């Protein structure tokens, strides 16, 4: 076989189980070769269905899946050059670690010696040599995950598909295995597609984050772009770290938007790329770590926006303090204050404060619509 | 290992503090065991009498006379032949039951139109009284013009009994099969046959042995359905029944002892196989 590229293109990918409801609605996406791509979204958003369609465990109702320049719809997984790591690993309970990993080679008809030689190299790579004769039931969650990874990797796929690979593990192990996944991906140099509902996992691992909602892609891009510049309210709220509030536009002057509501009169937001007119209701995002708190009466410079509010709750987080405010009515408004800064002049519940941020750091969000790439 | 023992110790009740209900329930259980095995043990004991032996206590002498009598005397009937037929029939029933139950359980992993009806039809014959069902099978063979025989009509009648049981056991076994194992096998390139051979059968092996055991024992001592379907040649239970009508010597008891021993050997072999499968899997861990 020639060198197989692992770039993936999804074109108009659609899936419907009953012909009425579509779980995946005409997805278009390009994933470059060797990328670590995370599909992020709540359960039922269609992310696992997309993964299973790429893997060949589910047939699309419509659309194309192109891997390395070849439409693979209708091909079995092995012909696609994909391998999947299942959510609960699906290790064969009756086979030892070695035989689990050697399964694909056994299917290919390799002799016992040949397949054990290859398998033992792989076992060493995932550091399971001492456990090679154990059964899956006798392994810890992290060890099981390594077996599953090795079993998938031994087929030398160009794309590895991981369905919620860390969800079966406890919190500490999850962080450790996250690192292992990343180094494994760098080691193998192949495309990883990882489905998760945890935004922490997605932004920690991925070169490319695809945020999904109800069968549609909301935003796709590098982790930092998606986190720092979410497209709309959904993405901002799902990834967290942002305060999102909405207001009716009063005027647009010098590329700055001002709002009509009385409590928002000291807020100015750059127009950016949005098209805004007077009277539109717009969503505004302000990063929680961009917000500073000052006591009332402190003079603020003209390039700052501020809201007057009351402290609802204070949570100590170690390296920062999470202060919850009642600034924007029904929308949650939170300030992440560096720990040392907070304790210079701590606030208590009920204190009246001014939440302020440099105006140019706030962003207008797009109206909530699907992304059409 | 040490902490397992510690847990056991912690869970075990300390001596001397057992409530009176323990003794009540223990004696109840003892009575139950005596009622269960007492009658059978009487038969086994009485089968070891010598020539003077009769059908009731007290025991007269101690010898293997009636066992020898059982296999040498023609007047007691065709014990050897019926035993032979029963074993062969049971093996045949076992094989068919295991294969069909396995296939049924494979089919019922997913829902299909009419699955409830198919299931009800499969289980329905459990409800029919065995004697009536046997007569029906006999009549049907008669109407078609095929002579009733152990490996024809009796086989069919027995399968109407063992298959529903086999299927129910197999369903329970299959419910513990994770569908992701099948997908994983497909993902790694296995064909449907390879998946069955390398994943389904080995994973389900203990369950298949259990179904085989069910099939064998149900067939080996099946009476009601076989009575009207075995034709002129008897199976072992039919032979025993006819002996109770015309044999008045302890060789009848000797036959009971022999068949029981065989049953225990078969059950022991089946359970031993299951234990062995699990041991072999566990042994690789050390």
Question: What do you see in this structure?
Answer:
The complex is a heterodimer of chains A (373) and B (286). By secondary structure, chain A is an alpha+beta fold. In chain A, 25% of the residues lie in helices and 34% in strands. Chain A contains ten helices and 20 strands. In chain A, a hairpin with a 5-residue loop joins strand 1 and strand 2. The longest helix of chain A is centred in the middle third of the chain and has 18 residues. Chain A starts with 7 loop residues before the first strand and ends in an 8-residue tail after the last strand. With 286 residues, chain B is mainly alpha-helical. In chain B, 73% of the residues lie in helices and 0% in strands. Chain B is built from twelve helices and no strands. The mean pLDDT of chain B is 85. Chains A and B meet through strand 6 and helix 3 of A and helix 8 and helix 9 of B.
């Amino acid at each position: 076989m020639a060198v197989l590229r692992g770039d993936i293109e999804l074109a108009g990918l659609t899936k419907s189980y009953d012909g009425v409801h579509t779980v995946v609605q005409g997805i278009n996406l390009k994933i470059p070769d060797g990328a670590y791509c995370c599909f992020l979204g709540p359960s039922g958003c269609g992310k696992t269905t997309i993964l299973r369609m790429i893997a060949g465990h589910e047939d699309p109702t419509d659309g194309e899946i192109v891997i390395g320049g070849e439409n693979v719809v209708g091909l079995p997984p092995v012909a696609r050059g994909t391998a999947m790591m299942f959510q609960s690993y699906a290790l064969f309970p009756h086979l030892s670690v070695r035989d689990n990993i050697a399964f694909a080679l056994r299917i290919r008809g390799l002799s016992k010696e040949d397949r054990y030689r290859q398998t033992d190299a792989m076992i060493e790579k995932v550091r399971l040599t001492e456990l090679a004769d154990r059964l899956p039931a006798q392994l810890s969650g992290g060890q099981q995950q390594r077996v599953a990874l090795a079993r998938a990797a031994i087929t030398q796929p160009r794309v590895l598909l991981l369905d919620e690979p860390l969800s079966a593990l406890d919190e500490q192990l999850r962080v450790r295995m996250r690192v292992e996944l990343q180094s494994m991906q760098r080691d193998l140099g192949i495309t990883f597609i990882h489905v998760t509902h945890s935004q922490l996992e997605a932004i920690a691992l991925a070169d490319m984050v695809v945020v999904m909602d109800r069968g549609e892609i909301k935003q796709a891009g590098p982790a930092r772009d998606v986190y720092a510049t979410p497209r709309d309210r959904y993405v901002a709220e799902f990834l967290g770290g942002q305060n999102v509030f909405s207001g009716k536009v009063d005027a647009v002057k010098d590329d700055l938007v001002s709002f009509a509501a009385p409590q928002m009169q000291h807020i100015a937001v750059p127009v950016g790329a949005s098209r805004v007119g007077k009277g539109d209701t717009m969503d505004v995002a302000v990063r929680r770590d961009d917000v500073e708190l000052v006591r009332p009466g402190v003079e603020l410079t003209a390039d700052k926006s501020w809201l007057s509010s009351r402290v609802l709750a204070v949570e100590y987080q170690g390296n920062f303090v999470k202060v919850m405010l009642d600034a924007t009515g029904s929308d949650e408004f939170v300030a992440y204050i560096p720990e040392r800064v907070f304790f210079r002049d701590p606030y208590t519940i009920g204190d009246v404060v001014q939440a302020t941020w440099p105006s140019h750091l706030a962003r207008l969000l797009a109206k909530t619509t699907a992304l059409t790439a | 290992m040490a902490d397992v023992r510690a847990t056991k110790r912690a869970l075990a009740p300390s001596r001397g503090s057992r409530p009176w209900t323990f003794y009540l329930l223990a004696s109840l259980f003892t009575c139950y065991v005596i009622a269960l095995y007492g009658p059978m043990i009487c038969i086994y004991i009485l089968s070891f009498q010598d020539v003077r032996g009769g059908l009731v206590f007290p025991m007269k002498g101690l010898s293997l006379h009636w066992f020898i009598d059982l296999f040498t005397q023609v007047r007691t009937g065709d014990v050897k032949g019926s035993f032979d037929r029963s074993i062969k029939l049971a093996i045949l029933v076992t094989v068919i039951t295991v294969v069909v139950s396995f296939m049924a359980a494979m089919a019922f992993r997913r829902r299909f139109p009419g699955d409830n009806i198919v299931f009800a039809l499969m289980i329905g014959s459990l409800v029919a009284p065995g004697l009536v069902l046997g007569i029906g099978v006999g009549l049907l063979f008669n109407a078609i013009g095929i002579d009733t025989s152990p490996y024809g009509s009796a086989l069919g009648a027995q399968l109407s009994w063992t298959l529903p049981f086999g299927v129910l056991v197999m369903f329970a076994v299959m419910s513990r099969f994770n569908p992701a194992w099948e997908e994983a096998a497909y993902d790694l390139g296995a064909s449907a046959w390879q998946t069955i051979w390398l994943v389904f059968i080995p994973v389900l092996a203990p369950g298949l042995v259990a179904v085989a055991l069910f099939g064998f024992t149900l067939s080996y001592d099946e009476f009601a359905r076989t009575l009207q379907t075995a034709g002129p040649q008897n199976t072992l239970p039919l032979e025993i029944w006819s002996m109770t009508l015309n044999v008045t010597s302890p060789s009848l008891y000797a036959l009971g002892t022999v068949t029981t021993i065989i049953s225990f050997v078969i059950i022991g072999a089946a359970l031993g196989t299951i234990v062995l499968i699990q041991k072999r899997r566990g042994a690789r861990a050390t």
